[in-house]
Design goal:
Number of helices of chain A: 30
Shape of chain B: globular
CATH class of chain B: Alpha Beta
Distance between the termini of chain A: 45 Å
Distance between the termini of chain B: 19 Å
Strand content of chain B: 15-25%
Structural class of chain B: alpha/beta
Largest interface: A-B, 70 and 71 residues
Oligomer: heterodimer
Largest sheet of chain B: 9 strands, mixed
Helix content of chain A: 25-40%
Strand content of chain A: 15-25%
Helix content of chain B: 25-40%
């Protein structure tokens, strides 16, 4: 048995963690545990005398004030009857073990190989009550660990001695196998497909045939023979092709030829790539419009890890948002933390690299926390997913020192199988590093390939191909990875320093597909590369060469370094304790040449690798669903006070404060409009940050998303989400782009499509055509909005298989699109927050309300399946936004809040509650619709604003008939809404606040 | 020019705003990776004030600030001394040290505050918040005028953000009397009117005696959980929009900056005195 150190709090100190676990077990699982005492155990696989172990434990691990420590034996306390031990599985990131090793190295002043694991941490929980094995397993799996990444053992007092004597240590035991297999592709079609399945290549028959034909080409046989490769491809070559051609990397469905039939009109059309037609197509037009008006800020779109715009005269802004859904369904914490850290690396690996990470955003879609349907095999409860994901976002952002400034949480039963986890990161780069443009990515033949950061293990093998298949109860465990924010923080600091010192020529991140993707993509510039895989540092011996090349181990960047700068770069890395390795060189051979111990194991034509994938052909159709418009009777006799309470407590509306506070939203000191403002609870429409301390120039950040309309009208759902992103930025005082020559008002938007499987199959996916039809309508909405407003898409992503399948049941998400928007704020001091400022101020609704209750929060509460989705009236919206911009130019608006979920009523309540200023509202000036429509319709492009009475004339002159005076801010702490001289709603602000702050 | 050294590396992440604070306060800030000190390329004794900013050094894996404190205590410099030895000399030379959040956490673990015996041993700890979670929230802090901290001169009540999961101060037995008698509790959580913050969330972590910041007995070292460097501008305050709406002439400077101005001015005055006394 290895020497062990056990640490726990002395009984005289409050153990918060234990108390929380006890409460959760009781409330969530109905298990009465009695007291729970968490302890930490470090097992030391390093030659130390017992004296040294004791000294290390007492000096470096124990808190002298609060902790007890036990060396080579364990806490004995007869009041505890049951035990749970949670260790990591072999190869899973163990940050505490690694940090203990660093402490040991400092303590002993010796060189310890910090990249090999010598100290293993685990937790042992002492539980007061005697619990059954089943109960202990339930507590362990729901509250303490996840069997995909943790080794869980449970035992009783009687078993304790032997269990602790045989404590599980997650040694990695692998038979070293460095062989490379050759695989014969000259086999029948069914066998080819089976091969794709068995190797988890996720390639279809056509793709397998294209690969087979390639390897049978005479020129290829000759080229490969010259490298001592026989005609059959190697495992490494097939894996490289599968990664590079994966849906995740190649976006085959967004690039497919789609045959689209409109069943309403009978018209058909062929779309050659949704991406090129609608997304890139829109940005191309926007770019032309911008340039014709001398607006030159759109620097780089779609061709790099993130989009780049000119932010100020000295700074470039880098913006990337993407999803991490499948991993978050399996291991919510690990999925979310790798999601946000991966997104950080995209920003870090744009252009030359080394962007300073400026802020994070996150938009999360879950099943409701009170989900009561039976869970399918492998399905985690939405509440467990939510808690894990939020913790992952928290650690990913907080521990990296990046403020999480904006986000959203949505709930819908249809996300109970697969949650959506959208992570966004903004970064800043100087225009130039050492005299070279920072946004460019130059690479020349002879430049070295250097990798930096974490080591490579088996974790994450097949991540890219995995996310392209649906989840089932057999999903492989290696798909789960745990991020290490501290490892990445070191790497990020190093990247910034290396870039600023001119030591980096270019860089990219290692995400899906690992080295095979990062090197494969960079090598396109020079048309070739040689990689020596034996030079890649490993976490542990035993990986096959192909595994090294495609592993998705986290916190790694691939750097392009000029040979004469390698020495300086390595010295910097050593100082900052970041491991770097020179693993190859870029060539112009036309081939990706991968070697292990100098033996060639893959030799693939660059052109075939990147352009050889056959274009997918897909079918789509669309029929507008019938709209049920018979609901007016149900609006007649509503108890509006009760509905007000229900709406404010609705999962999709209630305050997110308890989540938001767990995210650091102001580290770096540049956050100006944060998620909670005013007295500390007022929710805001968009975040605003300043770029630096010596200027007031800044940026606004918003997120537009409303999947609840997608089943009614996917086109309008997409337009509405786009409008929501815009109006939130207008609300905080932002400006539309391209309204004047060379005005410097950049916009940079990421689109993220998440849809259920949309590939038609008569048996497994019979409604695939209409699902793809929905997707096309969403993309048309994007195109129309982007080109109308001259707002460009600069980067984005699509996630195509958001279905959870188990036990013969499929849970599919609603088609969802997120527009993550950023825009220049010339002077952050002129921005506007949502909360009322002063009694006596006049309250206006800006924009028009229509009978658009379909999908609304009201109808969800009333369970009415009827009504139209709100339609975006683009021209009216733009006129309104221009007028608001004019009013803001004169500083006329004291508060502004956009109308979204719950409509006018919720916006009024949110503006009033935290400010502790009431409002007296009269609906009579809002038109002839019945009050429930005026109060709860979710028509787009509307705002509630308040202004000083002194500004009334000027304000009304600018806004004209777009502004409807509906009331006044009052000193009375209540919200009164009347119509026709009748009070409809009277609620004290305290009552509203109580409903709105209902905990999750 | 007053020279402010700002330490970074291994997960420290508030160094930029800390440097901005000193810049705005009229000092010359230098951000240095801690390994620049360990390899001898930076000599801390050349500075007037050393700052340990907030962050998550080593991920707070073994307890907040623990691994970093351990490094300062045991890892040897090229001159075979520890960085703690150098810091002791730095203090003996009448220089100043400021630790914020994670920086405070390792000042406490290093025994630099409260250091009632001048033995540089750990006398207190910063444990997990009573709420059990990391929280970002603005609180009010009251300055103890009897603490005579040169950092806090002229400040009575200050709103500041706290952003931590481990900020609950626990004192070693019998220490509380010493702290209170010697007025080492320089900063305590209070409500908007300055009354002691008995309950959550005004006392955000359950800290003993509502303590938010501790001085050492020389008054040269200050550690605090809240982040004054995140309040350099009025526009950092969550209610800036109302403050400015209701009083368009509000000062654009954030109240947090005063702490940095105070110490910079204090050092300047001290140096002038020293020069004139020569």
């Amino acid at each position: 048995m290895l020497p062990t150190i056990q640490i726990c709090k002395a009984d005289s100190f409050k153990d918060v963690r234990g108390a929380i676990l006890r409460k959760q077990a009781d409330q969530q699982l109905g298990i009465n545990t009695g007291k729970i005492k968490p302890t930490k155990v470090f097992a030391i696989n390093y030659p130390l005398t017992e004296k040294a172990v004791t000294a290390f434990a007492n000096e470096c691990l124990k808190d002298v004030i609060t902790d007890q420590v036990f060396i080579n034996h364990f806490l004995e306390d007869s009041q505890y009857q049951s035990f749970i031990a949670i260790a990591k599985l072999p190869g899973v990131t163990d940050d505490e073990g690694i940090s203990a090793q660093m402490a040991l190295a400092d303590f002993t002043n010796t060189q310890i190989d910090l990249n090999t694991q010598h100290i293993f941490s685990q937790e042992i929980f002492y539980i007061e009550n005697y619990l059954s094995e089943n109960q202990l397993q339930t507590i362990a799996k729901k509250l303490m660990g996840n069997p995909l990444i943790h080794h869980i053992s449970v035992f009783s007092l009687a078993q304790k001695k032997s269990a602790l004597r045989n404590l599980y240590i997650p040694f990695v035991e692998l038979k070293v196998d460095q062989t490379t297999q050759h695989i014969d592709l000259n086999i029948p079609n069914e066998a080819l497909l089976q091969l794709s399945k068995d190797m988890i290549l996720a390639l279809n028959l056509e793709e397998m045939q294209a690969i087979k034909n390639y390897f049978n080409r005479a020129d290829i046989i000759t080229h490969r023979a010259a490298q001592n490769l026989d005609a059959r491809p190697t495992d490494c070559e097939l894996e490289i092709l599968a990664q590079t051609w994966s849906e995740h990397c190649k976006h085959k469905e967004f690039s497919a030829i789609v045959h689209f039939e409109n069943l309403d009109t009978g018209q058909t059309k062929t779309i050659n790539s949704i991406f090129k037609t609608f997304i890139k197509g829109a940005t191309d037009i926007v770019q032309k419009n911008l340039q014709s008006n001398d607006n030159q800020w759109l620097i780089k779109v779609f061709s790099d890890n993130a989009g780049v715009v000119q932010a100020t005269k000295d700074l470039l802004f880098v913006w990337k948002v993407e999803t991490h859904n499948s991993p978050s369904a399996l291991d919510p914490y690990g999925g979310a933390i790798t999601g946000i850290l991966g997104c950080n690396r995209d920003a870090m690996g744009t252009g030359v690299g080394g962007a300073k990470l400026f802020f994070n955003t996150n938009v999360l879609c879950f099943g409701p926390p009170n989900y009561s349907k039976d869970l399918l095999t492998g399905q985690l409860h939405p509440k467990q997913i939510m808690e894990g994901v939020i913790k992952g976002i928290e650690d990913g952002g907080n521990k990296s020192g990046i403020p999480t400034v904006n986000g959203a949480i949505l709930f819908d039963d249809r996300y109970a199988g697969k949650p959506l986890v959208y992570c966004g990161t903004g970064g800043l780069m100087p225009n130039q590093y050492a005299g070279k443009d920072a946004w460019k990515k130059p690479i020349d033949t002879g430049d070295f390939i250097v990798i930096a950061g974490g080591r490579v293990g088996k974790d994450g093998i097949h991540g890219a191909t995995f996310s392209s298949v649906e989840l089932d109860e057999h999903s492989p465990q290696s798909a789960v990875q745990i991020g290490s924010p501290i490892t990445q923080k070191k790497l990020a600091d190093f990247m910034t320093k290396a870039a600023e010192s001119g030591l980096l020529k270019s860089s990219t991140d290692n995400g899906a597909g690992g080295l095979s993707s990062s090197v494969g993509e960079l090598a396109e510039t020079t048309n070739g590369a040689i990689v020596h895989l034996e030079k890649v540092p490993l976490k542990y011996a035993g990986l096959k060469p192909w595994e090294i090349f495609i592993s998705e181990s986290q916190e790694r960047m691939t750097l392009v370094v000029e040979p004469q700068k390698v020495g300086d770069l390595f010295r910097l890395a050593q100082k900052m304790e970041v491991e770097v390795s020179h693993i190859g060189v870029f060539t112009n051979s036309g081939f990706l040449d991968v070697r292990f111990d100098n033996q060639c194991i893959a030799y693939i034509d660059m052109d075939f690798l990147h352009n050889g994938v056959p274009q997918k052909k897909m079918m789509a159709e669309w029929k507008t669903p019938e709209t049920n418009t018979h609901y007016s009777d149900q609006l007649n006799s509503l108890d509006l006070n009760k509905i007000t309470q229900q709406l404010l407590a609705d999962y999709n509306i209630r305050s997110r404060e308890q989540v938001i506070r767990q995210y650091d939203h102001e580290v770096q000191g540049k956050s100006i409009i944060k998620p909670l403002m005013g007295q500390g609870r007022a929710p805001q429409d968009a975040a605003v940050l300043r770029f630096d301390f010596d200027s007031y120039e800044g940026i606004a950040v918003s997120n537009g998303i409303n999947p609840k309309f997608s089943h009614l009208d996917p086109y309008q759902m997409s337009c509405g989400a786009f409008d929501e992103g815009i109006r939130q930025i207008i609300s905080v005082g932002g400006q539309l782009p391209n309204t004047q020559k060379n005005d410097g008002i950049f916009w940079s938007v990421n689109d993220n499509f998440c849809v259920p499987d949309s590939a038609y199959d008569p048996i497994s996916n019979p409604d695939g055509k209409s699902k793809l039809g929905q997707l096309i309508l969403m993309a048309e909405g994007l195109y129309d909005m982007s080109t109308f407003f001259d707002i460009p898409l600069t980067s984005g992503k699509d996630s195509m298989k958001n279905d959870f399948k188990a036990d013969g049941i499929k849970i599919s998400i609603p088609p969802t699109i997120l527009y993550s928007m950023t825009a220049k704020i010339p002077d952050i001091r002129k921005t506007v927050t949502s909360d009322f400022k002063q009694a006596g101020d006049l309250i206006y609704q800006l924009g028009e309300t229509y009978d658009e209750l379909g999908g609304s929060a009201l109808f969800q509460i009333l369970k009415i399946d009827a009504g139209m989705a709100p339609k975006v009236q683009k021209k009216k919206a733009k006129q309104l936004y221009l007028a608001i911009m004019e009013a803001n130019k004169h500083g006329l608006i004291a508060s502004s809040h956009d109308l979204s979920d719950g409509g006018l009523l919720v916006a009024l309540a949110e503006s009033a509650m935290d400010a502790q200023l009431g409002a007296h509202i009269d609906l009579d000036h809002l038109g002839d619709y019945p009050s429930p429509i005026l109060l709860f319709s979710e028509s787009h492009s509307r705002f509630v604003v308040s202004i000083r009475p002194a500004h009334q004339a000027q304000f009304e002159q600018i806004l004209g008939n777009r502004a409807h005076l509906i009331g006044q801010v009052t000193n009375q702490p209540e919200l009164i809404i009347q119509s026709n001289n009748q009070v409809l709603i009277r609620q004290e602000l305290g009552q509203l606040m109580n409903a709105w702050t209902t905990p999750f | 020019m007053i020279k402010a050294l700002i330490i970074t590396g291994f997960g420290i992440n508030c160094e930029t705003e800390m440097a901005a604070a000193y810049q705005l306060a009229g000092a010359q800030p230098t951000i240095v990776h801690i390994n620049d000190i360990f390899d001898g390329s930076c000599n801390i004794l050349e500075y007037d004030i050393i700052n340990f900013p907030g962050g998550f050094s080593y991920g707070d894996d073994l307890g907040s600030g623990k691994v970093m404190a351990n490094k300062l205590k045991y890892k040897l410099l090229p001159n075979k001394r520890t960085l703690l030895d150098e810091l002791k000399e730095f203090i003996a030379n009448e220089n100043f040290i400021l630790g914020i959040c994670n920086g405070f956490q390792f000042l406490v673990r290093l025994g630099l505050v409260p250091n009632t015996q001048l033995t540089f041993t750990q006398e207190a700890t910063l444990a997990q918040n009573d709420s059990g979670i990391f929280e970002d929230r603005w609180v009010y802090c009251k300055v103890n005028p009897q603490a005579h901290s040169p950092f806090l001169k002229g400040i009575d009540i200050i709103p500041v953000p706290v952003r931590h999961g481990e900020g609950k101060l626990i004192l070693a037995p019998q220490l509380s009397d010493k702290i209170l008698q010697n007025n080492l509790h320089a900063l305590t959580y209070c409500d908007a009117t300055g009354q002691p913050a008995k309950d959550y969330p005004a006392n955000p972590n359950g800290s003993a005696f509502q303590i938010a910041g501790l001085s050492d007995t020389t008054r040269q070292v200050l550690g605090l959980m809240p982040h004054p460097e995140a309040f350099l501008s009025l526009y950092n305050h969550p209610n800036w929009a109302q403050l400015k709406n209701n009083n368009p002439n509000s000062r654009e400077e954030g109240l947090g900056l005063q702490i940095f101005k105070n110490i910079v001015n204090h050092i300047k005055t001290k140096q002038k005195k020293w020069i004139s006394s020569k």
